[in-house]
Amino acid sequence: MDFTAIAFGVLSTVLLGAALLVITARNPVHAVLFLILSFFSGAGLFVLLGAEFLAMLLIVVYVGAVAVLFLFVVMMLDVDFASLRTGYVQYLPLGLVISAVLLIEMVGVSGVVATRGASAAQTAAPVSDVSNIERIGQVLYTDYAYLFQGAGLVLTVAMIGALVLTLRHRPGVKRQNIAVQTARTVKSGLKIVQVKTGEGISE
After folding, report:
1. Which residues contact 81 (CB under 8 A, 6 or more apart)?
2. Closest Cα partner for 10 from 52, 40, 35?
3. For residues 80-114, b (16+ Cβ closer than 10 Å) or e, as one string?
């Protein structure tokens, strides 16, 4: 057994274990930390597959931005996680059924991909001088350009929805009123007071 097979086994085991701990951890902060560990393990698998660019994106984008953002949001928001876990046993059978269906689908897709990969390896084209990053860019911005723009639109809508859901109107907190600010005139925004020398003003 060579080093690649050993590394693949270790990274796969850590990835599956971390993914399982993400959904079973009671502390949400620990769940986010296990999510970061799973991202690092996935990046290692990408490196073994020769997709260094995807591994770098996984670390920079997901670990450096998304997971850290999750961590700060979980730590800063006052969320009652005890109330969110109520009814867990009630919906457990439905969750197990959905998980089984997803597992069957993933196994089926993996079998099809493995079969196609074996057949494609027999009739593989000669390796070109095009780099991995250049090939991904060509495919992403030509064949999947509309899907790429659609994904950006979905993420934008999700970001706006998250802001709307977390926006809370608290009494006693001054908020910006743009309509009042733009409708302000010189008379309402400026007050001229005649002050006598040496007396000052008090209001």
Report:
1. 28
2. 40
3. eeeeeeeeeeeeeeeeeeeeeeeeeeeeeeeeeee
**Once rounded to an integer, what is the mean pLDDT over residues 125-130?**
63
Q: How far is CA 176 from CA 20, 38, 129, 191, in A?
A: 44, 42, 57, 21
Q: Which residues contact 186 (CB under 8 A, 6 or more apart)?
A: none
pLDDT digits 0-9 by tens, 22-31: 888 877 778 8
- Residue whose pair of structure tokens reads 């495919």 in the numeric block: 139
Q: How far apart are CA 65 and CA 59, in angstroms?
A: 9
Contact call for residues 82 and 49 (beta carbons, < 8 A): no
Structure tokens at 102: 């997803």
For residue 32, which of 18, 43, 44 has the smallest C-alpha distance? 18
In angstroms, the Cα distances linking 168 to 36, 84, 158, 161, 171 are 29, 19, 18, 13, 10
- Length reported for the chain: 203
Is the whole model's pTM more than 0.85, yes or no?
no
Query: Any idea of the CA torsion for 192, 193, 196, 202, to the nearest 10 degrees?
Result: -150
